[in-house]
Amino acid sequence: MTRQSVLKCFLATIVPGLILVTLLCIVNFFMLRKHKGIKTLPPSDDFVGEVTRKSRFALPALLMPFMILGGIYGGIMTPTEAAGIAVVYAIPVGFFIYKGLNKDNFKEALVQSATTTGVVMVMFFMVMIVSRLLIFEDIPGLAQELIFSVSENPIVVLIMINVVMILIGMLMDDVSGVLLASPLLFPIVVELGVDPIQFAAIVGVNLGMGNITPPTAPLLYLGSRVTNVRVSAMLKPTLIMIAFAWIPTLIITTYVPQVSLFLPELLMG
């Protein structure tokens, strides 16, 4: 949407992602250290052998992210090509190694994938129309004037931009949010002197947080279905994670440019 390198945008989110993972681990440790319902596995007499067996079993699945991310970050293939290769790799692995795929559920998986793809493409189409309308009506320019009329302090303006993106993330899925936020807010951050690749990382952290922030929160509802836990019971720990992991990561990504620019500059100049 902003005519930037896809690979640089990918690379810009790695360090913020590692920071987020670290903070989530710390938050989980403090939340769960006195939890009486946690069960621990008994120590194994053959620890090395058990790890070896489980690693060997997991190896075919673990190769896939290395193939995808290694191919993209190495400049060997585009994200679209990596997705196609992942499908070609996953089908025989699912049929012949893990045996989770068979002729019955494979057909169902194809139908569900086609349905999901169709929904996403229609959504892309509609949101791109809205984005074009915003540009034709100069809504980004009006938003820029409105924000700068409140304050021209870069710190304050970036806070307002983040609040806008948090609200977008709360009300939309991440793909729609990216398509809407990018043309709307990009001219403002450029005016502030923010690097476009850093903006990509800020958008990524913001809208990633939107995936677990009600009322939309697609990942929160997915987690609820998978674990059979009510969303209402998940809200308190989710809000704690947002407050002590996501928001600090967002602040660091927003105000420390090298966090998101280090890897793109190191690997691509």
Description:
By secondary structure, this protein is an all-alpha fold. It has a domain of 157 residues. Helices cover 81% and strands 0% of the residues. The protein is built from twelve helices and no strands. The two termini are 22 Å apart. The model has no long low-confidence stretch (mean pLDDT 87).
Task: Lay out the secondary structure.
Elements: H1 6-12, H2 14-32, H3 47-73, H4 79-97, H5 103-136, H6 139-150, H7 154-171, H8 174-192, H9 196-210, H10 218-227, H11 231-255, H12 257-268
Helix pairs in contact: 1-9, 1-12, 2-11, 3-4, 5-8, 6-8, 7-8, 7-9, 8-9, 9-11, 11-12
Radius of gyration: 21 Å
- Report the biggest beta sheet as strand number plus sense, adding barrel if it closes: none
Q: Cα distance, first to last residue?
A: 22 Å
Q: Which parts are unreliable, with pLDDT below 50 for 5 consecutive residues or more? A: none
How many helices? The count is 12
Helix- and strand-based class? Answer: mainly alpha
Q: Report the portion of residues in β strands.
A: under 5%
| Overall outline | globular
What average pLDDT do the residues reach?
87
Number of strand elements: 0
Helix content bin:
over 70%
| SSE order, one letter for each helix or strand | HHHHHHHHHHHH
